[in-house]
TrEMBL record:
Phylogenetic placement of the source organism: Eukaryota, Metazoa, Chordata, Craniata, Vertebrata
Membrane topology designation: Multi-pass membrane protein
Domain (Potassium channel inwardly rectifying transmembrane) ranges: 192-331
Domain Inward rectifier potassium channel C-terminal positions: 338-507
Keyword Transmembrane recorded: yes
Catalytic activity: K(+)(in) = K(+)(out)
Chief location bin: membrane
Similarity remark: Belongs to the inward rectifier-type potassium channel (TC 1.A.2.1) family. KCNJ9 subfamily.
Biological source species: Synaphobranchus kaupii (Kaup's arrowtooth eel)
One cellular component term from this protein's GO annotations in UniProt: plasma membrane
Region (Disordered) location: 69-126
Name of the molecule in the record: G protein-activated inward rectifier potassium channel 3
Localization terms from the record: Membrane
Tagged with keyword Signal: no
Length: 510
């Protein structure tokens, strides 16, 4: 193969190659991406073997290049040429593995096909490409003397070690570096907590006037400390505002100066200070009426002020008491007595692989028209390279057969049949350990006592799914009734279940 064919092959390989899709590295976006398998191509081979192969490959290439140059020089000048000492740079150490296995560039040309004039441009061309690729996959120079992870050993002229000992000296690929959302502890960020709270914070809302247009819902959604603060300030502001008007009117009519004059006909009787006007305002709005301070019929503005304050006070009473009643009677507390099992289980039922979990109601007053549904939260990347964070997909719990409508008198085991339309169709026991997703379960019903709609939520991550388990029975028969033992509500036991996925079982794999 001549030099022109080699160059054309390299150019066509680069022109026809598709650039790799860039995967976002944000912690909140990668929380539900599937974990790569241990034998994935994203993981490099053994670092010691890779380093030895890389050094040997660079040595062979340098020896061939030196032999070609020395043979040409000996023919012309007949002067022996001593080969220079072998020096391996850190970039060559890091990128030699990819140089020999790059599918886009192919294998390096041999000494017979490569001329001395083309050797240097070809090497620099590879160096630029591999340096960019190396900086993308290897954060940091592992061969540098200033590297904080490698302890330099050996003689000063010897090449630096490829990798040091320990876990932090390994090749840090995208799936190999430690993440802050580790699922082994409490650092795993959930979309919905186990008690049903949504971990989504809304920020950068510019048009906040929409909240004032629905003032009733805004007040009901406030926390209790802010709700009580608004409740108290509404009364205090109206009392002080009307007290200022009363005192200003009494001062303008000169009632303050003639407080002890029996011949004076005051408009506001016994109002000689702002504190007395404040007491008059409180007594008028709260209809206390002690009798020592009052508005007389000697002025028309006093009568108008009393009427206005009575109307404003009634509006505030209706609004604040109504909000307080709705806030106290909200059905969120009713959801605390609706419980879910701590784990999901996957086992066979009627020769079909099923995903099961259990729900129960602790109260004797039952939920009316209870319905159950579930969502799968999982991030994915489309074939075009678009990243969809936290995509929601429906999990069929029997809405086509009516199985999602419950008569929630005793604990119910909810079943999801894993078939072709299920998102768990191609997930087996081993692949489940590498997946990252979250199942959101939503139970809705009408509270029998108040008639309000109640909603209870919970979530299950991939670590809370037990493969090959089944729930224990918590029902027993007593004299005249059935008994529910909630101590066995979360208990499971292992059963014989194939580790294959539903798709592999349908294809007849053993």
């Amino acid at each position: 193969m001549n030099t022109t064919a080699i160059c054309s092959r390299v150019v066509l390989a680069r022109r026809n190659s598709i650039p790799p899709v860039q995967i976002l590295a944000a912690k909140h976006l990668l929380a539900y991406l599937p974990r790569p398998s241990p034998d994935s191509a994203r993981y490099t081979p053994n670092p010691r073997k890779a380093g030895a192969k890389a050094i040997m490959a660079v040595a062979v290439m340098n020896s061939r290049r030196v032999s070609i140059v020395s043979s040409k020089s000996s023919e012309s000048d007949s002067v022996p040429l001593t080969p220079p000492p072998l020096r391996v740079t850190p970039i060559q150490q890091q990128s030699s593995h990819y140089r020999l296995n790059d599918p886009e560039l192919g294998s390096p040309p041999s000494a017979q096909d490569q001329s001395p004039e083309l050797a240097k441009p070809y090497r620099s061309h590879h160096g630029r490409h591999l340096k960019r690729l190396s900086s993308k996959w290897y954060p940091g120079n592992f061969g540098s003397d200033h590297s904080p992870f490698i302890k330099r050993t050996g003689a000063p002229g010897s090449p630096p070690p490829m990798f040091g000992k320990g876990k932090r000296q390994r090749c840090k690929l995208i799936g190999d570096e430690p993440q802050a959302y580790s699922t082994t502890g409490k650092q795993r960020q959930r979309y919905v907590t186990k008690d049903g709270k949504c971990r989504v914070n809304l920020g950068h809302i510019k048009d906040k006037s929409r909240f004032l247009s629905d003032i009733f819902t805004t007040l009901v959604d406030l926390k209790y400390r802010w709700f009580l603060f608004v409740f108290t300030m509404c009364y205090i502001v109206t009392w002080v505002a009307f007290a200022e008007v009363y005192f200003l009117d009494a001062w303008l009519r000169d009632d303050v100066a003639h407080i002890h004059d029996p011949e004076w006909r005051p408009c506001f009787e016994n109002v000689d200070s702002f504190l007395a006007a404040l007491l008059l305002s409180v007594e008028s709005q709260r209809t206390i009426g002690y009798g020592s301070r009052m508005v007389t019929a000697n002025c028309i503005e006093g009568v108008v002020l009393i009427m206005a304050q009575s109307i404003v006070g009634s509006i505030i009473d209706a609004l604040m008491v109504g909000c307080m009643f709705v806030k106290i009677s909200r059905p969120q507390k009713r959801a605390q007595t609706l419980i879910f099992s701590k784990h999901c289980v996957i086992s066979e039922r009627d020769e079909q692989l099923c995903l099961l979990f259990r729900i129960g109601d602790l109260r004797e007053s039952h939920m009316v028209d209870a319905k159950i549904r579930a969502k799968l939260i999982k991030s994915r990347q489309t074939k075009e390279g678009e990243f969809i964070p936290l995509e929601q997909s429906e999990i069929n719990l029997g809405y086509d057969t009516g199985g999602d409508r419950l008569f929630l008198v005793e604990p119910q085991t909810i079943t999801h049949i894993i078939n072709e339309s299920s998102p768990f169709w191609d997930i087996g026991a081993e692949s489940l350990k590498r997946e990252r997703f979250e199942i959101i379960v939503i139970l809705e019903g009408i509270v029998e006592a108040s008639g309000m709609t109640c909603q209870a939520r919970t979530s299950y991550t991939e670590e809370e799914i037990l493969w090959g388990h089944r729930f224990e029975s918590c029902m027993s028969l007593e004299k005249g009734a059935f008994r529910v033992d909630y101590s066995a509500f979360d208990k499971t036991f292992e059963v014989q279940t194939s580790a294959l996925s539903a798709k592999e079982k349908s294809e007849g794999k053993i």
